[in-house]
Design brief:
four-stranded antiparallel sheet; globular
Length: 129
């Protein structure tokens, strides 16, 4: 059974950095696509970043390009989201997700929650201005 456990959230001042981790277990993750999504209070969950596990190819929403970096550690079965130059609008609960569907390999599929069957519990990121 696939399990995803996020960690690394917290309170940080605007301009600061945080690194989120997503420890994955119970699957052959070299065949997976992994994503980070976030949900701010009163807003819908939105795509942040994705990585194709075996190739390492990465994808981002425009609002975080140049500030966030998604990466993975094969030996640890862990996906990271390094977040720099944080802004108050980055405040949200951040979720890690895993996908094994063919839809993930499309532009839209990587950015769609419906492509991901497995989700972590979320970790809160709060950026104070």
């Amino acid at each position: 059974q696939v399990q995803l456990v996020e960690s690394g959230g917290g309170l940080v001042q605007a301009g600061g950095s945080l690194r989120l981790s997503c420890a994955a277990s119970g699957g052959a993750f070299s065949r997976y696509g992994m994503g980070w999504f976030r949900q701010a209070p009163g807003k819908e969950r939105e795509f942040v970043a994705a990585i194709v596990w075996d190739t390492g190819n990465t994808y981002y929403v425009d609002s975080v390009k140049g500030r966030f970096t998604i990466s993975r550690d094969n030996a640890k079965n862990t996906v990271y989201l390094q977040m720099n130059l944080l802004k108050s609008e980055d405040t949200a609960v951040y979720y890690c997700a895993a996908s094994q569907t063919a839809a993930f390999m499309t532009y839209t599929g990587k950015r769609s929650q419906t492509s991901y069957a497995y989700w972590g519990q979320g970790t809160q990121v709060t950026v104070s201005s």
